[in-house]
């Protein structure tokens, strides 16, 4: 009985984490600088671990194209990677210069943007057709 309650808690955790990732991924579609694909991939993995029905729903939704593109190519093309980095750097810079009056928050946003650019540039796998 103890194992089943642990599985239930894990399932609920993965469903909640997946839903949060879907929300962040959806916001990332319209907010430059917030990545969509990593959140959608995280949601897909969470739903894979917890709910095949939610995973099927995600794959059929408009966000499913991000998962299909990533699976088909095995990663991001150099062109897409450069586009994402340029867009993130631009939006972080605009936010720091025009919208954030607090220096501490400027630094935090700048560091977060730098980490995002490093992750997209060096951690996210390259598309298979470019590895040759």
Number of domains as seen in the coordinates: 2
Mean pLDDT: 86
Put simply, the count of helices is 6
The tally of strands reads 0
What coarse outline follows from CA principal-axis ratios? globular
The SSE string, one letter per element, is: HHHHHH
In this structure, how is the largest beta sheet organized? none
Which parts are unreliable, with pLDDT below 50 for 5 consecutive residues or more?
A: none
Description:
The chain contains six helices and no strands. With 132 residues, the protein is mainly alpha-helical. The chain is globular and about 50 Å long. Helix 2 (37-50) runs antiparallel to helix 3, helix 2 (37-50) packs across helix 4 (64-73) and helix 5 runs antiparallel to helix 6. Helices cover 80% and strands 0% of the residues. The model has no long low-confidence stretch (mean pLDDT 86).
Write the layout of secondary structure elements.
Elements: H1 2-30, H2 37-50, H3 52-60, H4 64-73, H5 78-99, H6 103-123
Helix pairs in contact: 1-2, 2-3, 2-4, 5-6
Care to give the gist of this entry?
The protein is mainly α and 132 residues long.
Keywords:
132 residues; 2 domains; mainly alpha
């Amino acid at each position: 009985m103890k194992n089943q309650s642990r599985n239930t808690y894990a399932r609920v955790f993965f469903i909640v984490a997946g839903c949060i990732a879907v929300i962040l991924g959806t916001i990332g579609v319209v907010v430059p600088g917030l990545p969509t694909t990593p959140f959608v991939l995280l949601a897909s993995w969470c739903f894979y671990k917890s709910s095949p029905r939610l995973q099927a729903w995600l794959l059929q939704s408009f966000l499913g194209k991000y998962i299909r593109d990533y699976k088909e190519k095995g990663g991001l093309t150099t062109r897409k990677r450069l586009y994402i980095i340029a867009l993130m750097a631009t939006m972080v810079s605009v936010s720091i210069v025009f919208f954030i009056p607090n220096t501490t928050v400027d630094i935090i946003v700048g560091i977060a943007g730098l980490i995002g650019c490093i992750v997209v540039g060096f951690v996210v796998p390259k598309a298979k057709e470019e590895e040759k």
